[in-house]
Amino acid sequence: MARWCEPNWVVCVPQQSAIENVPLSTPIIEAHALKQYSSSGQYVSALYGEGLIYEITGEEPRVVIANEEELTEVVISKATVLNEYLVTFKDKVIHILLLDKLLNTAQDQDAEVSNQLISTTITSFAQAEKFLCKFRCHQPLLQDIDRKVKEASEHIHPANDVDQMQNVLQDVLIHCWETLLKKHSPIVQMNTSFQDILFRALDYYVLGRLHEVLWWLVCERCQVVDQLVKTRLSHLRHANLSAMQLGVPANYYTPLPAAVVELASLPNVESAVGRLQCINSTIDLIQAQAKEARVTLHQYKDQDGEPELVLSTAELVALLTTVVVQAQCSHLVSNIYYMTHFVFSVTEDDPLWKSLGLLRLTLENIMKLDVARLPPATKNMRKELSLQDLMQVSAEVESRFETKGASRSIGDITALDLQLHQLTQQIQLSTQALSDTRLIERNSASRRSDRSAMSPTQDSGKVQSFREFLSGIPSSLRESLRRRQSQQRSAIQSSLNG
To answer: Is the distance from CB of 210 to CB of 153 less than 8 angstroms?
Structure first.
């Protein structure tokens, strides 16, 4: 109690009967150390800071009152002062109030944590910030975390190598994680799921605040190789690369607009772990859309048994290749470098980390692709259509389905055909409703002529440089981080057990 002395502090001590069945811990003790907040008798605790305001009022008896907002209601908690003491410790005077019961220590909030962990997911900076701020005991420490982040930013500059920057950042994360964890009750401190979620939230929060400076340094390092990949992706887009050319069966091929949109949003995500989540979401969408196409085709053909829903690695890589080509994300190598070096809360067996490995494999395959050696596309896969083009495609699709009649067993109906069939039906309904609309033909000749403008010859030297650069990016997380975090967990457990 030596640090909580007069004239600013009052230490509240519940009477013995009030704490007989309560395991004492640092958070409970800090919740009862009240610091004067204003001259009008308001106090804040060492644990909650300004997140909870107390008032010491009355004469006989004096009471400690807290007004707390819970949704639309205000809950008043009150503890009676049974006695008052001034204790001298060396040259300091400690002001003690003996209370009839515990002050509100928000242990009920900690008790709810275990039940909420199952449904708690953190996939963005906003969610991480909300999670960190929802606990009152975190409030006084968030400013300290912001100060630590500012100090870490001073070590992020071109003069330092990646290892130095990683060491600084992991020190900040471990310090913040341990400090916040110790503000909770012992049962929550020992909960490994809560430990992991808290660390993930800090990964988003801390690295998100440093994103701009980190990303600039990474782009500087990878700019030459990024340009090679950008040129290659542009060439493949103009070549109208399709998944069927890469080996995906025609019956299972389907456009993947949701996955393309998700991957195209990658530059807008402002943290390494957030971008890793974006890659994982892209792959999830590819799998979901491909499975949906297979189920739809299976049902249309009235086939027996269950459709094969598991994509092989080769099929998944092929589909991801088409998504990467369509999304045309810049700085893809920078993103791989960024996610490999500056994600701290993901282990190698996590699906997020496996998604990064799949992206690396896809990018390596893209750089090795020789369009001239691929089998020709069975159809002219055009990504953009004028209104007249769309009408022509609609007529062709409808004539195919009319020819088939009621038979659904004919094998050349594909998932793509079904999707186009649904689209043409929507077009017909729209056309009937707007029969007076004049369809204006766009001049698509100039657009098509641009497709042959970018067909660079394969430069084996540049591709080799890309492979060497990509292979030089470590594929595993830093062992020191995992080891140190494990040591900190053991130390926390030992302190609680001891």
So the answer is: yes
Q: Which two tokens stand for residue 194?
A: 């809560």
49: which strand partners?
45
Per-residue pLDDT tens over the stretch 20-78: 887 777 888 888 899 988 877 788 888 888 878 888 888 778 888 887 665 455 556 78
Of 430, 392, 385, 425, the closest CA to residue 255 belongs to 385
pTM of the model: 0.73
Q: Tell me the three state secondary structure of residue 101.
A: coil
CA distance 311 to 317: 10
Across 103-107, 253-257, 357-361, the highest mean pLDDT is recorded for: 357-361
- DSSP result, 119-175: G----SHHHHHHHHHTSGGGHHHHHHHHHHHHHHHTT-STTS-HHHHHHHHHHHHHH
Task: State the first-to-last Cα distance of the chain, in angstroms, to the nearest integer.
Answer: 21
* CA triple 343-345-350, angle to 5 deg: 95
- Residue 217 tokens, joined: 């340094």
Nearest alpha-carbon partner for 279 in 357, 346, 192, 223: 357
Residues near 98 by Cβ (< 8 Å), separated by ≥ 6? 13, 14, 15, 81, 82, 83, 84, 85
> Distance (Å, rounded) from C-alpha 441 to C-alpha 350?
50
Q: What is the CA radius of gyration of the chain?
A: 31
For 459, which DSSP code?
Answer: -
